[in-house]
Amino acid sequence: MKKNEPTLKKQVSVSVSMSLVLIVSFLLIGGHFIFGQQRYMLSESEAPKFKLAKQLFQKGQQLLLKEKYDKAVKPFKECLKIFPKFAHADYYLAQIFYKNADFLGALVHIEKAKENYDYLSKLGVNTHLEYLDRLRAQKMELQDSIREMETRLERIRARNPNPNVPNPEAEEIKSQITTAKHSIRMIDDRLRSPVPDPTKMPADYYYHHGNILFKLKRYSDAFDQYLEAVKTDPCHINALTNLANLKFMARKYQDALSFLEKAEKCGGKVNPKFKEAILKAMGK
């Protein structure tokens, strides 16, 4: 098995791209939040801390987008110092530490990220629900406003029945009605957006955890993490490829081929030399 290992380590997909930069589209701003049948409320001291932590997290995100990974470490760490359960900051730190070959440090951060993911995601979902409630209230206000403007418009027309005579006041009201209706259409589009699922951890959390464990030569544990990634996202190409690599390392060539073929069926581009090596080992 050892003679195959050096080649396989090169084959394993270890992408450290910041693929979840948009993961926090619906973050907490502050206030009351519902957890199942329980009600959660940030205290007066917690709310401003979280607001500041979120600002630091967003600063780190912007640095990641510019590929300034080392500079992003400071705002992420400051974010966690203020609000230790900010899982997404740990997630990105895990990737940065991995990129810098600090695999033990990366392991600490990915484990913390996974531990606190459920907590933070529920905050985000309930904030999103509150956001939708605000949108519905805005829609009702706009509808009431349109009815009032239409009533005013009818009164103006009653006073000036001749449609050929220009009436600046009536034209202004028509313009306002058009704008309000456009705003309602925009609100309706936002109301149709899906509510994020707080119970489903992204597949990349498992995938990156697997990469870290692989680098630490904890192959069995890495396999379990890749498998969880595929359970969450059946077409996670990199996780499927890595599963194939681990099975090849264990000399379970049929299993390796099966995972690789699944990656191909999902549209993934697999290494032809790797597939050839599997088939050769199977005597084909």
**Secondary structure category:** mainly alpha
Mind telling me the CATH superfamily name of the largest domain?
Tetratricopeptide repeat domain
Domain module tally: 3
E-strand count: 2
Can you tell me the residue ranges where pLDDT is under 50 for at least 5 consecutive residues?
Answer: 1-11, 14-40
Topology:
Elements (H helix, E strand, L loop, with lengths): L4 H7 L20 E4 L2 E4 L4 H20 L3 H14 L4 H13 L3 H57 L8 H24 L11 H13 L3 H14 L4 H13 L3 H13 L6 H10 L3
Antiparallel strand pairs: 1-2
Helix pairs in contact: 1-9, 2-3, 3-4, 4-5, 5-6, 5-7, 7-8, 8-9, 9-10, 10-11
Word description of this protein:
- The chain is 70% helix and 3% strand.
- The chain is mostly helical.
- The protein has 3 domains: 14-123, Serine Threonine Protein Phosphatase 5, Tetratricopeptide repeat, CATH 1.25.40; 124-191; 203-281, Serine Threonine Protein Phosphatase 5, Tetratricopeptide repeat (Alpha Horseshoe).
- Strand 1 (32-35) and strand 2 (38-41) form a beta hairpin.
- The chain is elongated, with a radius of gyration of 27 Å.
Main traits of this protein?
284 residues; Serine Threonine Protein Phosphatase 5, Tetratricopeptide repeat; 3 domains; disordered N terminus; two-stranded antiparallel sheet; 2 strands; elongated; mainly alpha
TL;DR?
The protein is mainly α and 284 residues long.
